[in-house]
Amino acid sequence: MNFGSMILQMARSVPFAPAVSCEGRTFTYQELATRARALAGAIRQHGLVAGDRVLIQMHNRIEIPEVMLGCWAAGIVVVPVNAKLHQNEVAHILHDSGAKLVFVSDGVNRVETSVETIDVGTAPYDALLRTEGLSTTAETTPADLAWLFYTSGTTGRPKGAMLSNRNLLAMANAYYADIDQLGPEDAMLVAAPASHGAGLYMLAALLKGAQVLISTGFDVDEVEAALRQHRQLSLFAVPTILNRLVTAWEGRDVPLENLRCIVYGGAPMYVADLERAIYLFGPRLFQLFAQGETPMTVSGLPQRLHRRDLPESRRLLSSCGYPRTGCAISIRDPETGAALPPGTDGEICAQGETVMLGYWSNPEATAKALRGGWLWTGDLGYVDEDGLLHVVDR
User: Which one of 17, 241, 245, 328 has the minimum C-beta count within 10 Å?
Assistant: First the structure.
């Protein structure tokens, strides 16, 4: 099972449907597949073999999906990093991952390295696109590594969470099960860095033939323009962005009927702010709790429970919802490992097909995070009597 090849298959079923757009440029699924296969052939010609790593240090650009898909078609592991990372952090990730090729965009904090580096949007990159395309994608298994997701490093140097083909597919399937079905009639706006959560959900959209709109940076006017142009628009937003949209659109004639869903998460959302957002958006919000080690999938509060008129509304809105499809949650004692009863604070543990394989070249950290069949998230919280997850400290 090759996750990238499953997306490339969309070129057969919806070849002329728009796949990805950015800054006035649009590639159809057929064009995206052709460009990705050419990159796959070029990557092979550079001497890389299945299992090698490619670091992607790019601002949000239209080329990000084709680079990812080209790598996967060649059996290569992608290592996306935030374009705004400090050079020291990028240097650590480059060294730790052992990447043999780097794709960068203009304006990133690039590092001095002997590893071959290719600037997208330049003549050398365009030359890669003229390579004979790889007709047959690499044969990989569900357990094979696909994405090295480096953590933020808030408690030390970033660690590479190993995400497999199975992890990515399980994440996408959980999106369809819990948040929304997607199809060629839908559009997803990627307004946050595609190297992290927004990019992961971008894959879920491409896997179903939806159009991905890549924004070079969050802008309220751009979101509104997308909403006016597309009749079924979804996006991922951190709470600060959600609050900015509410402030900008309250009392204005904005076609919110075109809004399919806003998934929000990544930071606490105050109940008062959330109630204000519900008043404006109605049942179009999905609250997400997760981390890179189980990408975008631990718990969530569904659209139908984003209400202000229920007796338990404040408790619902102050929680992180229920376990996602295919995911189990357990609150455990960090010292003994024992499961704790409802209402008792402990470490949040998760289990399911989205949970990472482990940390790249870091068996000590892996042994600490994956114990007793559970992912120990490092976050503290409790589950109440009704099964709602409440996060106490991240």
Answer: 328
